[in-house]
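Lecture 7 notes: from sequence to structure.
We start with the chain below.
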Amino acid sequence: MTIKRVLYVLLVIFVAGASALTGALTGGVAVYQLVSQKLPAAQADLVAEASQSNSAEIQPSLILNTTDIQTTVTQAVESVTPAVVTVVGVIPGQRTFFGMTGDSTVSGSGVFISEDGYLLTNNHVIADAKAITVMLADGSQQEASLVGTDIYADLAVLKTEGPVPAVARLGNSDLLNPGETVIAIGSPLGEFKNTVTVGVVSATGRAIDTGYGYSIEDLIQTDAAINSGNSGGPLVNLAGEVIGLNTLVVRNSSSGTLAEGLGFAISVNTAQAVAEQIIQNGFFARPSLGINWEAINPRLAAYYNLPVSWGVYITEVRDGGPASQAGLEVGDIITAVDEVALDSTNSFVNLLFDHQPGDQVMVTVARGSRTLEVQVTLGASQSG
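Predicted structure tokens for the same chain:
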């Protein structure tokens, strides 16, 4: 190969290399420009996606809409309030050493349950009253008459003859659950008419010892504020249905410990059953033995040297009554009903209330040094 041919080959290689290098540089510049234009938008998209991801991670899972709750309470109150009344009873004066005292008044609350003018309240609100007046939500007044009472459930049915402003809807207290929001409506202290307080159902199926030988059972416990004058007023659910009648509040325990938020209401299912029978018959038929009696506890048993610590001492047997027909006598001590012993948790009245008039029960009796078992067919009465 001549020198001229060698130089020609080298020139061709140089030109080809230069062309390749120039193409690569040109392509690289074009790619760089394209990437430079797209990068800010891509970075922005990545930042936005990251921001949305973080926002989703810190978003709370529970959202409380207090506006809806307040609206529901307001609507429930508006639907029931026209049917709520203040009940005022006139108690006759008493004869004392210094002469007759003047009449006094007591007050509570109540609620219309019928367009015929029937309303519910507590028995203790109108007990011993010689005249009863109800004050409606609009401030007007109507005279009321007593239809009947059931002292063991602390219920009374009244009736007015004037126009009924509204009738409350009754719910089903068997469906209540602890924690459910409830509303108490009434006239605390007899002055603050149609006061509204809100709380929850603390428990159901409670029993409170009255101190008179029996317990009021199937009570609803609530922390909605209940004060003197609220008695007989409705306890309402968020659907605007009456599910109880406010009846009492516990301020302290037997040990003297102060308590707050311990209110109790009679379940509306119990109240409705009692009211229907009172409206129909004038009284609520409780199972009865046809006796008068005194409760016995360990303290009394020790004081009178009685043969048993718990029971009821028969002080009178009514002629022709169930106890008389079964052969029970004055001086007998009933210690059990259907083999359930009377004690601190099982009162005589409440054991009877587990039965219906007409049921046959086995009564265990201490008569002197003997123990007898007597079968009795229960009668119907407003008392034991």
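Points to note: Confidence is low (pLDDT under 50) at residues 38-51. The helical segments are 3-58, 66-80, 123-126, 268-281, 298-304, 322-326, 348-352.
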